[in-house]
Design goal:
Elements lengths: L8 E5 L2 E4 H21 L10 H19 L9 H17 L12 H30 L9 H36 L3 H45 L1
Antiparallel strand pairs: 1-2
Length: 231
């Protein structure tokens, strides 16, 4: 039994190796680019809008509301990044109902790449909010002795993001395979529907956790700013 789509090599030429993870990741990206291009070409502010624009507005509105509820300053800054995470992971889960499609989020290399994106985004957004010196200052709060613990926290939560998403997607996929072997009629349909819901929930959780990490950096700046003003 293959644990991840990394193990299925589709093309090999010297050091160039294309496995299912790479192929399906690019397939999702191309699909999203085509859909985005098709929908945004016909955007309108009139009452009668197409289904594509309606669905797009629902998704964007949902993500915007989640960002605003965290109370981060300038919530519009985070919409492209958080929205992309949610849409990519959610699309991978939705497409998993297609026979033969292996969600790339079932690969640790993909989930690690997504977690690294969050790892990089947190300080970038933090620098945007408070500058380089202001952001780096929080690593030595309340004392310089906390620096290694802050760094360990950054690394550990990145690993937790990657392993959590990978484990949930992989276990759900393998459970469906086992049930297909045991009962090839009723259970697969039920599990595919359940897997679709779980996959969307995982996309939501991953995006929310990324947002929480970013918001914590922004709020730390607000807290320090408030303490400075009090003094």
């Amino acid at each position: 039994m293959r644990l991840t789509p990394d193990q299925m090599v589709l093309f090999r030429h010297g050091r160039i190796v294309v496995n299912e993870t790479i192929a399906f990741t690019w397939a999702i990206m191309i699909l999203l680019v085509i859909l985005s291009r098709g929908i945004t070409r016909k955007l309108t502010s009139q009452a009668n809008i197409g289904r594509g624009q309606n669905m797009l507005e629902i998704i964007i509105g949902f993500v915007q509301n989640q960002i605003k509820e965290t109370g981060v300053p300038h919530p519009e800054r985070y919409l492209p990044f958080i929205g992309t995470l949610f849409i990519f992971i959610g699309t991978a889960s939705v497409l998993s109902v297609i026979p033969g499609f292996e969600p790339p989020t079932g690969s640790l290399s993909t989930t690690a790449a997504l977690a690294i994106c969050v790892f990089i985004a947190v300080p970038l957004f933090g620098v945007l909010e408070e500058g380089v010196a202001g952001y780096l200052e929080h690593y030595i709060q309340p004392s310089v002795f906390m620096l290694p613990f802050h760094l360990m926290g950054e690394i550990s939560r990145t690993l937790a993001l990657a392993v959590r998403l990978f484990g949930n997607v992989m276990s759900e996929t393998k459970l469906i395979v086992i049930l297909i072997a045991v009962s090839p009629f009723f259970f697969p349909v039920l599990m595919h529907a359940l897997g679709l819901v779980i996959g969307l929930i995982q996309a939501y959780i991953f995006a929310v956790l990324a947002l929480v990490y970013i918001a914590s950096a922004a709020r730390a700046h607000e807290v320090r700013k408030g303490r400075t003003e009090e003094k």
